[in-house]
């Protein structure tokens, strides 16, 4: 591999993805361009309904929004053929089968952006250098543009070494990591069911450029809950008794949710982030929508929080004689890196000699749905790990001024390639 | 009749009952003495389980309290034989059957006191003249002592005129009018099922001595609700997730109850009067008890308030995973005086010539469970009315300084006797 | 007057106003065209800051919205000169001074539309006949288009009779009657301070065509309250203690507002109609906006409800350490028609002989801010009245299918002209 | 020392104290008997107002309760002279000054019982052997009877060795450790201001007989809050607007308290343990009393919880127009054992050779107000430690069937004496 050439390519790719950020389940341009490129490289690509279990999908926008975004993607350079294959569902796997017996190694990359308005001041490099987001209110301020580029770089690197490898490597490009929306449906479709090794990696996360973290742990289990209360409207002055007040039910639920008792088994977090209810000042509100999040330090704590939240929502609805529709808009679990894989990865990365420091572990404190893949692989005896790729950043993740140190991308590619090669030798 | 002699007797009786006030369902002394007296006069008395439908009883104390009060009553001069007949349930009817065909006329008198501490200053006549309450925390500060005396006076008056009457007269002495606890169970036992006429009367109520009100109306329908939440205790610091918090459920219910939407059909009132919950500062409360009241200007409004209250209580329990036991501790309905009976009563009372003023109607704004008797009688084609007997009073009803003008009792007897005689002629 | 010609004109005018509905404080086209027409007729017109007390203005949109609507009005045919005179504030008075001594008679007409989407099916006459609303989301579905036309008709009728009149007549065209936003600021500017008589009239209101109501009463006093809570955002999982939760404050306030105790002085209504709070699922909400309404059967009840609401809002803010900004977006009071003016109007209307039925009074049960003018006029010894002009309607007021019976407009003009002439003779 | 003789004495003493348990600030019998005994031994005793800063007292009962308990204590064998010296405030220090230069060593023993009803079945040793509690509802089920006995044993042991010691030893007998009520006021009076070393010890706590814990840590900082809401009563049906509802304020506060956001700095606990409000079903409640507890893993977290709780209480009161009286009924802080003192104590205890196992540390997870003494001593450069004395127990602490293994008391005496002697050599 000519890593200097590849580095220039990664930067070019990253800036293209950065300019066209797409949020969860709407990564039509991104997904179609990845598919085209990986097929061109010689990978066997499966995408859309081939890799998504629709019954397990969480937090996907309405069909109307989907349709609008397919048009938007086409107008922004999506590949029409690849896009059609998706049948409305983003996500793909790309497999290289060496033909030789050996392990199945899966790597996960996430494609979606966050719903943040990118900074437009000239001090922000993407703006200054002309690759800032053209999609209003959307921005790759979590670094998934870099993840996608790294994934494509790893694909090139491994293909160039394919004659020296044994077994299969499978690159997973996942939709909707933000809000823990996409991994579960791919996991349920079975994309890691035969994997012996699973690896995921995140850029940044408080770790500076030059550092590689072997075992990023401490992901909180989480559920993202959407609750919609439906009541009966009535004139608040003329016939208040005819109403069924969805706004009061939602307010009562909110206080109940924030009052759920803590758990001795670990930290717990519950938040009602948004509440929108009612139509007019003098009308008893017949509709209220809440976006809620529960988190737990352990799966047990998270399940307690979720089941109590459902009780609270249902009880509140009953109190006010309204209906409540509760749906999961996302879900993540906890994970632990497999010690043997951590050890092997450490050897490979240290041997590379390109990182200033290799750390054993870090504590995330956020949520991540690659944990579903990790659990599944470990549940059938495989090994799984989550790496951290240090990068200096210009602002916190999810901030409109966030930018990564593009120079670390090539190091990430080399690390993942080296570890994979060691596993497949 | 020698009304001067009777007046002295009424005052003597009233002062005796005043000294031994008994609250709802505990009127053992009062009831046994009335029974003895009316049997002595020649009335056919039924009492206890003969006149109470136990399945319909509301707000009766525990058997332990009943047993203690039977002993108390015996020690205060109750008639042992009559008391035994009651089998623990106060209430009686006393009938005079003339043997001649004619209407059935029912009159209702209530026997219970209120839970108020009587004033002990010498400026309060009962204290000064030595007939104030000997039962701590209990006081006849609603005038039912006068009602009982009037009932006994009416019994004497009618018995002395029995040869001139046709049909039957039935005197109903009801337990637990306070909190609307006693009438319903007597009504359900059928004590007015054959009544052609029903009359009840209250002393005072904002009307001065010398005035007789023919049609006291405006009673609010009401339900008295007891709610008990039962959860699971837990150490609030060490294992909060193991608790099921009855205190939080009760607080949520309280806010929900006070938030029940008003009704366009008439005034509505809801009150959580008392809330007692929890055992210790550092224990998640596993018990909470609430005493609640709903009222409505119409039966429809009252039923709306009650059914919404039950929804709120059940939903709150569901929210916190606790159980709730909801029971009615009392209930009253609305009523309207029958116009023809009001007219006839007006003729009779005006003819007596003993009242300075006879008023057509008054508006109560409180609740009264004689309304159940009125509804039942009217429902089978009978006529019913509620009178007001004016009396100067020394303090508002239910106040520890309340005292009536004893001189009006004899006028009340004469009015009721005169109206009854007119109906039975 | 040629009333047949005038009727055609009224219909033409009403359909023009109907096509260009403008909501509260944005009636720039409507107001400028009325001004031009009345000046042309010979009335002395005052408008904008001449008739509005800016310190008393309630519920006026932001200056940005004002500016945008001025442009919109110009593009829809507003009179540029008249519009400029307004200085951004809609509202006008038009006076005819006979020069002869006599009373000052004021008539109020309201100009604003409601925020309702007009029906677009061909069964709806405005759509079928091509005069439906061109302003999306706005519709004259309360009949103020007819009120404006009637006002212009009355102006013509009175001007044609000016030689026979004594005193002055003042036509008041008010902004923002919906939500009780506009009358108060005109009243505070003094536009009825010298009025001996005040009259207002509403079309429809449940009364059919051919009926005239002399005394439309029962307006509820009301306050429209906007509350905005401002807190501090924080990551709900990483640093929850750093947030100040505006959403929780608003939910607590909502339960508190709906729990305000009823008032024995008359009906009371409180409603939180809308609540919008928060930005993201995992962010502690730093903002919450509520639209609230309080109403009372009497001014005392309304003031109690309002002052308690303010207490609740401030206390909730304090509980959660957030700020709350409370503003009145509208306000109305109660009123009673002056008996002598009702009598005189009855004579005049019956003498006209154009109504099938003349009713003494009706009970509104809604709110109306002409009540401020009525109170002010009566407070200095004048007389005031609110008429009802019956009209068959195709759907309830504030419904997108609402349409009036245009034939009643000319009768409304003749009634108001006749009453005014009688007062000014 | 004859430790066999002393052991018999300790058991005798402990059973006497066990039979006469006294709760916080009411330890009049206990305190007077300790004073008498220590003076007899030759200690210089200070007690009552000499050792209590009254301005810092928390959670002390009313003067009426104090007076009643002084009489009760006298009737149960309190020393009248010592009792009089207390001036109503329990607590004492007993000092032995060797007259030789050396360190000041303070040891803390707590005297109060808990409000638990002792088990009366014969399987419970205190009942079976005749030394169970004679004070209804009170029981030494936390082991402070053993602590007092150990303290007296230590006093004897040290006095017998006084010739070999240097410096001063001060024995602190503290009132009201339960609910963290007593230590703060003694600390504020300065009883450890000159201490170079401070030691406290607890029996049991999940550690079996034969084990000594050198550094019992993990005490949660806590505040015990009493809140009393005072409103205005009113008839809930006749004049609801006249009431100021303390019950609604308390319910709102309860939901607000349980909704206080968690803290990223460590575990936090908030509990409303009891709520008692209202007088009658149809009366708007004018009074509500809450017992609340806040806890935090660090002092910062505890202070956050406390200050937010106060905000919530005050805001709730404002919402409902009622007053709230907030008082601290107790308070504890966190602590860490001083490493050097832990080390020295370890040497001394291991050298004794009487414990089967000596553990370095344990994690408490409860609260303890000896932490105030520890903080104060460490703040001026002294060293402090909290020991655990293992004991088999028959039921959890604060349970009516709790009993200790009396055999461990003598080991506790020997350990404390040995450590103290080492420090004072």
Walk me through the structure:
The structure is a homotetramer of 425-residue chains. The first copy, chain A, has 2 domains: 3-218 and 333-424, 3-Layer(aba) Sandwich (Aminopeptidase); 221-332, Alpha-Beta Plaits (2-Layer Sandwich). Helices cover 36% and strands 22% of the residues of chain A. The first copy, chain A, is built from 12 helices and 16 strands. Chain A has helices at residues 3-19, 28-41, 63-75, 80-86, 125-128, 144-160, 183-189, 246-258, 299-320, 339-352, 370-379, 408-424; strands at 44-47, 92-97, 104-110, 168-174, 197-203, 211-213, 216-217, 221-230, 234-235, 268-277, 283-284, 287-296, 323-332, 357-359, 362-363, 383-389. In chain A, strands 1-2-4-3-5-16-6-14 form an 8-stranded mixed β-sheet. In chain A, α1 (3-19) packs antiparallel against α6. Chain A is globular. The mean pLDDT of chain A is 97. The A-C interface holds A 115, 179, 220, 224, 236-238, 240, 247-248, 250-252, 254-255, 258, 269, 271-285, 288, 291-293, 295, 329, 365-367 and C 179, 220, 224, 236-238, 240, 247-248, 250-252, 254-255, 258, 269, 271-285, 288, 291-293, 295, 329, 365-367. β9 of chain B pairs antiparallel with β9 of chain D, so a sheet runs across the interface.
């Amino acid at each position: 591999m000519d890593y200097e050439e590849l580095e220039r390519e990664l930067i070019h790719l990253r800036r293209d993805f950065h300019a066209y950020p797409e949020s969860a389940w709407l990564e039509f341009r991104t997904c179609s361009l990845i598919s085209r490129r990986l097929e061109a490289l010689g990978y066997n690509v499966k995408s859309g309904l081939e890799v998504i279990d629709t019954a397990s999908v969480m937090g996907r926008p309405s069909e109307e929004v989907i349709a609008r975004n397919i048009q938007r993607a086409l107008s922004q350079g999506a590949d029409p053929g690849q896009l059609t294959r998706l049948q409305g569902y983003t996500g793909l796997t790309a497999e290289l089968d060496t033909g030789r017996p050996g392990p199945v190694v899966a790597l996960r990359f996430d494609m979606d952006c966050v719903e943040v308005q990118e900074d437009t001041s000239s001090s922000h490099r993407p703006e200054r250098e002309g690759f800032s987001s053209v999609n209003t209110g959307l921005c790759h301020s979590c670094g998934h543009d870099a993840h996608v580029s790294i994934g494509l770089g790893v694909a090139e690197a491994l293909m160039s070494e394919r004659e020296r490898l044994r077994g299969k490597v499978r690159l997973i490009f996942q939709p909707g990591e933000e809000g823990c929306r996409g991994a579960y449906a791919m996991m349920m479709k079975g994309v890691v069911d035969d994997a012996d090794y699973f690896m995921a990696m995140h850029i940044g996360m408080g770790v500076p450029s030059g550092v590689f973290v072997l075992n990023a742990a401490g992901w909180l289990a989480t559920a993202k809950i959407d609750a919609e209360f439906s009541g009966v409207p009535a004139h608040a002055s003329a016939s208040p008794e005819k109403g069924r007040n969805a706004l009061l039910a939602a307010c009562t639920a909110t206080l109940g949710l924030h009052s759920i008792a803590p758990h001795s088994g670990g930290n717990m977090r519950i938040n009602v982030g948004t509440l929108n209810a009612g139509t007019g000042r003098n009308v008893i509100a017949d509709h209220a929508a809440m976006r809620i999040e529960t988190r737990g330090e352990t799966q047990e704590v998270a399940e307690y929080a979720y089941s109590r939240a459902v009780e609270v929502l249902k009880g509140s609805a009953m109190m006010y004689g309204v209906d409540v529709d509760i749906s999961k808009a996302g879900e993540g679990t906890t994970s632990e890196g497999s010690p043997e894989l951590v050890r092997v990865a450490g050897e490979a990365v240290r041997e590379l000699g390109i990182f200033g420091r290799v750390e054993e572990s870090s504590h995330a404190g956020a949520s991540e749905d690659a944990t579903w893949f990790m659990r599944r692989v470990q549940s059938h005896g495989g090994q799984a790990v989550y790496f951290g790729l240090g990068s200096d950043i210009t602002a916190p993740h999810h901030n409109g001024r966030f930018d990564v140190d593009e120079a670390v991308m090539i190091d990430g590619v080399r690390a993942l390639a080296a570890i994979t090669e060691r596993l497949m030798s």
